[in-house]
Amino acid sequence: MIHCSYTILLMALGTTVHAGPPPELNSVAIETTGQVTVRNAHAVLHSPEEGLWSIATGWENDWPAEWHHAHPETVEQVGDWTIVRGRIALDSGEWRLTDAYRQEEGLLRCTRRFEWHGAAPLEPCTLSIRFQAGGAGAGVVMPGLLYHGNPSGAKSGRTPVYTGAPGEEAFFEEHRFPMPFASFEWREGDNFSGAALHSLPCPVPGGNRSDQWWSLGVTAKDGYTELALLSGPCASNGRRSVIKAVQPGFEAYTDTWLVVPPGAIIEKTFYLDVWPVAREGAGFQRSVSKALDLYPPVLTPDLPAARDIINGKLRYAETRWLDMGSVAGYRKYHDRSAIVMGWCGQAAAPGYALPVLADHFDIPYAQDRAQRSLDFLTNAVFYEGGFHTWYHPERQRWERHEPLSQGQAMLHFADAIRLGRETDMDTTRWEAFLRRACDFHSARILDADWAPASTDQAFFIAPLCEAARLFDVAAYRKAAVKAGETYAARSVTMREPYWGGTLDASCEDKEGAYAALQGFVALYDATGEDRYLEWARHALDVVLTYLVVWDIDMPPGRLRNHGFRTRGWTAVSPQNQHIDVFGVLIAPWVYRMGELTENATLKDTALLMFRSCGQLMDPWGSQGEQPQQTSYAQRGEAHDVEALRGDYVEDWTVFWITAHFLNAAARFIEMNAPLLE
User: Fold this and answer.
1) Which segments within 530-571 are labelled E, that is strand?
2) What's the pLDDT score for residue 398?
3) 632/575 Cα distance (integer angstroms)
4) Are 206 and 260 spatial neighbours (Cβ–Cβ below 8 Å)?
5) Pairs from 323-329 (Cβ < 8 Å, separation ≥ 24)
6) What's the distance, Cα to Cα, between the start and end of the chain in Å?
7) I want to staple 154 with a disulfide (CB 3.0 to 4.6 A). Which of 20, 161, 488, 597 is the partner?
8) How far apart are CA 474 and CA 99, in angstroms?
9) How far apart are CA 476 and CA 553, in angstroms?
10) How far apart are alpha carbons 517 and 484 in whole angstroms?
11) Contacts of 132 (CB under 8 A, 6+ apart)
């Protein structure tokens, strides 16, 4: 063990896009105890007391056992690298251990090297990387997986949960992370602190299971929290050696140890960060910014061109057009199925998108179909909760109670009216319908008893703001402001993370965060008040935690066959852990935030989201909803969890997969974004 304090570097932090003052310099030192300590103001992150390095050589009760630890023995400075070395001696050989630290992207980068010097393979073996924060609680964000414990998803029993109670563990395979970091926020007196462990994801050599990756996560200790990487073991919801493999819950994922041959060298790169947090709920935002620094959005020639994507989607939209004279519109499926507004159907979207796209593409039918489809949708029957969003042609019947779908449809009508007034289109019926819907929902929201269950009703904010401008009705804006204030009060602290933005999951999800983002941006555009922009930044960063920022290596399978790149796609939710193209609809709002905050990275991210999501489109312009980038399938059970990753479900082809591209392209064009260049 070393016997003196040795400062290895001072980290100058890069600027961030987000709220709050920039943190002070991080000082990183090796203490007289042998611990590596990262300090920033009152925030501290340090290696465990028992040792900087920890390796297990046993396996009991579905978890690593027989742990061995070591402290640094030597320190060496090589250029801007600080090298620390140590050893773990076993009866069968010796582990030689090296950490190499330096500053990168305002973080402390480390490449840890494990060398096994033994005469025989070492089995079972588990490697680890562990650093501890001096606080406890549920304030963990693991992108796509955990949001301050998933308090809303916990009720369903289908999502990971974490309360921060001593002994709790939450570890997930790295290929399950859209942004590969674990971030933790905790209170210290009147202040909040944040710490994060970022990872360079990779499979682990010598895995006992095929396609075995490092796992990233947290362990709750008595009064502190440990951020860690393990060489395969996973845990969640009080169970060890399980993964979230199917929609209803978890499946066994056992025996994730290593078999390490003599002379093996295993290396792992990770990044450490610690900082003072400006306010409750903001801690993860710095980690999002740093993830975008570590994995910048890069558009490459192998991604589909935007024009090709749009032409393909226009071609596929033709297969969904239904013309029965008085009934005209875009069907949810191929056959004579329902015409559905909002969520899966998005039948109102082409009424806005087609006339915009017609200025750049050959769409001779654009205005006619926009006119007829929206005219038909104004026939939607109102009920005690608003208006029905599903029409069944074979039964000539309107049905379904879907508030979030109503909000989405209302925005399409508002945008179509705005454009239609500038052309020769007849917006009379559209305006009457939108006024009736806004009268209903603004009165409902302004009622003293309004108490939305989830973030889904944030989808009403943007259309109410736009209708207030179109019709000069103050009550619409007043209702939008009330809704915005309600959701900010509930979610900006992350005590109730944005949730419930889909109809097939009651948990934290990107659609709920997107609803809030869309609403907060609309309020800022309507009022110019800075608080709305701050709320929009927060909602945006939650949305971005679902954005895949790196290209996940795929095993043999359909995705690998296509040379599929995952960056730019978005994970769905802690319940539904596949990726989908829904993020393409969010992309214009990401671009808009790039404009409002003068952030070029956000603009590049938005364009990447659109083009990358155009992958997997077949010659007809069709795509399925569910690429399986991780070991998860959207079904009730999995016979072989190792056969899931790399597959692709292409038979769920609801119309939103087409409409969102057309809608997003129109928004990009209206913003003069360089989408078509």
Assistant:
1) 570-571
2) 98
3) 10
4) yes
5) 324/393, 326/376, 327/376, 327/391, 327/393, 328/369, 328/372, 328/373, 328/375, 328/376, 329/372, 329/373, 329/376, 329/377, 329/391
6) 59
7) 161
8) 62
9) 48
10) 10
11) 45, 46, 47, 48, 221, 224, 225, 226, 227
Q: How far is 665 from 677, CA to CA, in rounded Å?
A: 13
Structure token pair of residue 503 = 């109809």
**ω into residue 124 within 30 of 0, thus cis?**
yes
Tell me the mean pLDDT in the region 364-374: 98
User: pTM (2 decimals)?
Assistant: 0.95
Q: Round to whole Å and give the CA distance between 265 and 56.
A: 16
Closest CA to 191 of 27, 37, 41, 12: 41
Query: What is the reported pLDDT for 26?
Result: 56
Query: Amino acid identity of 544?
Result: L
Pairing of strands 140-142, 235-236: unpaired
Q: For position 13, what pLDDT does the model report? A: 26
CB-based contact 508:153 (threshold 8 Å): yes
CA torsion sign for 547, 553, 558, 563 is positive
Residue 299 structure tokens: 């558009």
3-class state of residue 210 by DSSP: coil
Residue pair 338/647 in contact by the 8 Å Cβ criterion: no
Q: Do 198 and 271 touch, CB atoms closer than 8 A?
A: yes
Q: Please, are residues 430 and 413 in contact by the beta-carbon 8 Å criterion?
A: yes
In the structure, what pLDDT confidence band is assigned to residue 457 with cuts at 50, 70 and 90? very high
Extract the tokens encoding 231. 């060489």
Distances (CA, A) of 544 to 84, 290, 514: 35, 12, 10
Closest CA to 148 of 275, 282, 23, 271: 282
Residues 140-199 have pLDDT tens digits of 999 999 999 999 999 888 999 999 999 999 999 999 999 999 999 999 889 999 999 999
Q: Indicate if the alpha-carbon torsion angle 660, 663, 664, 665 is positive or negative.
A: positive
Domain 6-293, what fold? Beta-galactosidase; Chain A, domain 5 (2.70.98)
Q: Is 5 a residue whose pLDDT tops 70?
A: no
CA distances from 483 to 94, 442, 519, 590, 620 (A): 62, 10, 9, 21, 41
